[in-house]
Amino acid sequence: KSITTIIAVEFNGGVVLGSDSRVSAGETVVNRVMNKLSLLHDKIYCALSGSAADAQTIAEMVNYQLDVHSIEIGEDPQVRSAATLVKNISYKYKEELSAHLIVAGWDRRGGGQVFVTLNGLLSRQPFAVGGSGSSYVYGFVDAEYQKGMSKEDCQQFVVNTISLAMSRDGSSGGVAYLVTIDEKGAEEKCILGNELPTFYDQ
Amino acid sequence: MERHYMDSKIKGVSTGTTILAVTFNGGVIIGSDSRASMGGNYVCSKTINKLIQVHDRIFCCIAGSLADAQAVTKTAKFQISLHSIQMESPPLVKAAASVMKELCYNNKEELQAGFITAGWDKKKGPQVYTVALGGMLLSLPFTIGGSGSTYIYGYTDAKYKPDMSREECLQFATNALALAMGRDNVSGGVAHLVVITEGGVEHVVIPGDKLPKFHDE
Prior knowledge:
The complex is a heterodimer of chains A (202) and B (217).
Chain A: E1 2-3, E2 6-11, E3 14-19, E4 23-25, E5 28-31, E6 37-41, E7 44-51, H1 52-73, H2 79-92, E8 99-107, E9 111-116, E10 123-124, E11 127-130, H3 134-144, H4 151-168, E12 176-182, E13 185-191
Antiparallel strand pairs in A: 1-4, 1-7, 2-3, 2-11, 3-12, 4-5, 6-7, 7-8, 8-9, 9-10, 12-13
Helix pairs in contact in A: 1-2, 3-4
Chain B: E1 19-24, E2 27-32, E3 36-38, E4 42-45, E5 51-55, E6 58-64, H1 66-87, H2 93-106, E7 113-121, E8 125-131, E9 137-140, E10 142-145, H3 153-159, H4 166-183, E11 191-197, E12 200-206
Antiparallel strand pairs in B: 1-2, 1-10, 2-11, 3-4, 5-6, 6-7, 7-8, 8-9, 11-12
């Protein structure tokens, strides 16, 4: 099974993560309302893409490891720690796994951060897109991203991107899930198909 | 009425490119990158012109195997000129596109190229037609093609508006090409754009360093 179109964007004071909700096995849609934004800790989420089973397993393992780690250090973990844990698993089992997780969250030291962990690489970026639907929106995100966007602008940017990707990619669709993480916590939102923005339709 | 000649000394097979055609109020812009690559890691030419003039106000651009593209366009150019002489009037864009479609459809096993035909004629004004790999002919307000086009589907869907002005359209096409060239490693070089209107044909070349830059450049 493969899952697609995920995006995470940093803004001043937090991050916004977004995803579609379709899980397809070949031509069949196996689940049309899956939430691909998975909790790793209170203020750290990850977005799943690639093989559904692999991605979910990695997320569960890291959730457990992060809980242990945060008890050991006695405070909330850093986003970089969560991303490193994901990266360690992705790199060690590179040949067997085929999932890409984007880790994003807020911590006291670094504010909002987005990390990519593709194939075992660890890199911090202002925004990241992933999954099969992401190819179609590289041009759009390159053109539209600006540094220093506000929280609402970021949310709109994420919703627009997912909406465009869903309309072109056969393996993306359903509803759009959004998670906004800032100092106060994480807020989850679900935007139904008919409330998504529409663009010029030929 | 100028005639643009294409240099036909092109070596190697090219399967990487970004091509597009967009209608605006009063005309149509057809554009492409300029890279010809062989095998995905050798650039045989940095400055080929993939926009071919098949008649005074009708241009074509090619995505796919360059050799196939040249063979088809040579035949098409001849057939369209003959048709235009027989009709005693400039050919319709649809006629030119149909000629391309016939050639693609009848040779679909051997050919590996997709075509965009764009132009202006007196009957319907500016038009864009696309002939897909199997020989299907579609008329659209704008279209993109080639390997680099996957990266700009989102951008063109979001940013295209019907009835743009010439400047807006030029900006739209340039941005789209620049974005695709920035992400696709087999598209690059300069951006070739041809603006076709009732009044004539204008060829705009934008070198790499004058292309619009985006946030991470």
